[in-house]
Amino acid sequence: MNFSLDFSPLAPYWPVFLHGAWLTLKMTTLAVIVGVTIGIFVAFAKNSPNRWLARSCSAYIEVVRNTPFLVQIFLLYFGLASLGIRMPTFAAAVLAMIINIAAYAAEIIRAGIDSVPRGQIEAAQCLGLSVWRIRWHVMLQPAIERVYPALTSQFLLMMQASAMASQISAEELTAIANTVQSDTFRSLETYIVVAALYLVLAILVKLVAYAIGETIFKRRRTLRRAAAQGRRSPVSRLPATDPAGMAPLAHVPYVHPASRPVAVNTAASLRIEGSAS
Amino acid sequence: MMGGFSWTYFFFMVQSIGWTLVLSALAFVLGGAGGFLVMLARISPRAWLRRPAMLFIECVQGIPLLILLFIVYFGLSVYGLVLPALVAAGLAMMIYTSAYLGDIWRGCVEAMPRPQWEASECLSLTRWQTLRLVIIPQATRLSLPPTIGFLVQLIKMTSLASVIGFVELTRAGQIINNSIFQPFLVFLLVGTFYFLLCYPLSRWSASMERKLNVSHR
User: Fold this and answer.
1) In tens digits, what is the pLDDT along chain B, a chain of 217 residues?
2) Which one of A47, A277, B100, B102 counts the least CB within 10 Å of its CB?
3) What is the nearest CA distance from A178 to chain B, expressed in angstroms?
4) Radius of gyration (Cα) for chain A, nearest Å?
5) Rounded CA separation B110/A179 (Å)
6) Domain boundaries of chain A, sorted by first residue
7) pTM
8) Which numeric CATH code is attached to A14-203?
9) Residue B169's closest CA among B2, B25, B10, B6?
10) Which residues of chain A does B68 touch, with a Cβ-Cβ cutoff of 8 Å?
11) How close, in Å, is residue B130 to chain A by CA atoms?
12) DSSP state for residue B181 in the 8-state scheme
């Protein structure tokens, strides 16, 4: 059977696609922010001395991590509706995502908190820091920085899982694809376009996560400032006030004159060759 | 209302667990073979093998499985191949699994210390012999916990095959729900079955990980 890909019928639908992508991004962002906040509390509660609290937290984490997201959505949307609690599809989808990501984030953050050396916490206790200050400065901040890559990839997985929200017809990217393909009958092309859009979204989320990671962690900021100061040191023999001179230095490490003459030599030899001919 | 749910439905559900397991096994075995090839390509010294493998992993990891499933399902049907849902779902999940397992195993192989490679070279083992006799036996031990962890993901992901009409556990739940309309009970039961499948595997993976860490310290 002859079949060729034809993307032209999809051209009028691009604002619809973009709207779907935007909604996917919005759902993911909302779920990530709320979910991580809850996840942090769950992570601390799981290590709490109160046994029932710790037990129920680990039960929550295990139940969410060992059941499919699709079933969670169905249970939340259809199940609660049959019990009389009705909510719009968008709210149900976001709520399911929050519940899901909170459990994963709690597990990841707990691993980070466990990796904080015991001595550091004891040192902070000796300095008389309050419990919450220890949790915030000594435990949580280094823990999050350490597990940040794992968290980021979990966010990406969450964004992909949001495609399942189309099954309760929340109007995100995949649901839009289903609508468009039933309008145009170009199913394969539609899903290829949507796959490309998801890829672009994934790259976007990765970049944003990287940028956030570079700015929010105090230790990384301090390290960067120290590195910049090192480059600005008098050894470089360049006026620190000259912005034109500073710009390339932000990326190129300082090279000692002794190891420079290679460039000078080639320039000189070129000049000699030029004059000879 | 509660009388609507009978043992017939329950047994239908238990039967459909079999199909969930069949699909998981199919995806895992085929995807494992594919993942092995992806891993080999990904660690190859030749750029023309390494680059496409990297691109493949990046692309598949950036696309939701649901979309992959639709592409395979509709893609095959427009070219005139009308396949049973099991084959389409198995194919999509194989692609998905091979990308993830390829990446996981690459990490494990690259975690092997460099001197292992150098020592094998001194013994004049070829690259393939080094991989087969030295690196892979050690990497297998390291790769077992994340592989089992991924298997749990895979079992959960088979619930997506319900979307293209393959009757596995989730689809069975939907069918039962459509006839008796007790979604809370039905999906709670479906979730419980998934939990019973996945939780032992999760525990096994976690305990292996703990053992590995202890032996490494």
Assistant:
1) 455 778 888 888 889 999 999 999 999 999 999 999 999 999 999 999 999 999 999 999 999 999 999 998 888 777 777 778 888 899 999 999 999 999 999 999 999 999 999 999 999 999 999 999 999 999 998 899 999 999 999 999 999 999 888 888 999 999 998 888 888 889 999 999 999 999 999 999 989 888 887 555 4
2) A277
3) 10
4) 27
5) 44
6) 14-203
7) 0.82
8) 1.10.3720.10
9) B10
10) 195
11) 31
12) -
